[in-house]
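Minutes, project check-in
Item: structure for the 193-residue chain
Input as provided by the requester:
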Amino acid sequence: MEELSPSKSDWTEVRGSEVHGRGMFAVKDIPEGEHIIEYLGERIDKEESDRRGNALYDVSQETGGAQVYLFTLDESWDLDGNFEWNTARLVNHSCESNCEAQIDDELRIWLTAVRDIKCDEELSFNYGFGIDDYEKHPCLCGSRKCVGYIVTEECWPELRRIIKKKKAKEERKAAKEKARKRKKEEKRKKKFS
């Protein structure tokens, strides 16, 4: 794919971020509903998208990190935004986001303010990942609504049930292990008394 000019916005700039190293920040107040920046990339079919996504997953298994910038456009097409000139890819996830991705009739993706955004505030949107492999995507947003993983808000109730069930299972296992150790210690004490 040919190198394009970086995506630009009069509303934002890239800065260091506590969430994920770099992020995009408002350089002036942004009103609710404003199209802030276009998310650019290469339009690819689903087969190619799966290939690239799986390749990125393989890299993440080897290195411990790989960013995925694939966006679903419709039932046939995705957009791969993994290019230096797509500065919109640096907008981080948050469980309490101030932007959302909107796809227009021409299948262009715009990051749009869902509320008024103050100057110097970091822009964020919910990446909308499914729940199937939630453990691969821990969330670092730190918001008061953070659910601990990058999943779409519609999955939050199910995620909370899964986490609660998993925690209860771990607590039962820990209690059994503690009881086993206590019995072993009691046997040892009886043996030497």
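Outcome recorded: The first strand starts at residue 12 and ends at 17.
No further action items on this chain.
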